[in-house]
Amino acid sequence: MSEKINKRELLREKRKQEKRRKTMIFVIIVFAVVTLILAAALLPKLLVQNREFGATQGFSVGYPNAPVTVIEFSSYNCGYCKIVSEELQEDFFRDYVETGDVYFTYVNIPSNNEESYAAATASYCAAEQNMFYEYKVQLFTYAGYEGAFSTENLISYSDAAGLDTEDFRACLVRDDYAKAISQDLQFAQSVGLTGTPSFLINGEELVYTSELIPTVDALLNN
């Protein structure tokens, strides 16, 4: 009799274990399904945010709805502009643009000479491919050297920056941006630009480099 009881208890215990195992499997399946459903719902939103985050559109970079907008007026013949581009921009983009705090736009202010105008035109051709900031690195790297902004060199910079060189070359030949460059200069004059580099903050306050970060911080902390 005792042996029969032990067998029944053992059978009941096995049934309990099987039931617990099935319950656990069911819970795991439900959790996996819920996770997949949430992922399917949230992933597209996350992907959209990642595509927009820090994305370049022409001469602008960052979130268009950022609380602070910064417009830089700069010239490739300006030695201090070169320093700002090489020493300030990377940190500023990391700390303010990539965080979604600043929407940044660059405005070309060419000097009154043929090569400077050519560099500004080349900037527009790079912006057509949304590769302006990569191309600007090349322009400022070689700025100051004789012939730095010759047509041949401008095209070679496009290759180094990873642009479609044939499209870039065709854009240079078309030379479609005289009006746009003129509008850039008129815009700079309208806000009272007296020198480069200068920065227009939230469409109102024109500041120089030393005032850029304090002004942006003050606006963000208000």
What's the helix and strand layout?
Blueprint: H1 2-52, E1 56-57, E2 60-61, E3 68-74, H2 79-87, H3 89-97, E4 102-108, H4 114-128, H5 132-142, H6 151-160, H7 165-174, H8 178-190, E5 198-201, E6 205-208, H9 209-221
Parallel strand pairs: 3-4
Antiparallel strand pairs: 1-2, 2-4, 3-5, 5-6
Task: Write up what this structure looks like.
It is a single chain. A hairpin with a 2-residue loop joins strand 1 and strand 2 (60-61). A six-stranded mixed sheet has the order 1-2-4-3-5-6, with helices on both faces. The model is unreliable at 34-54 (pLDDT under 50). It is elongated. It has two domains: 1-52; 56-221, Glutaredoxin. It is 64% helix and 12% strand. It has helices at residues 2-52, 79-87, 89-97, 114-128, 132-142, 151-160, 165-174, 178-190, 209-221, and strands at residues 56-57, 60-61, 68-74, 102-108, 198-201, 205-208. It is an alpha+beta fold. It is built from nine helices and six strands.
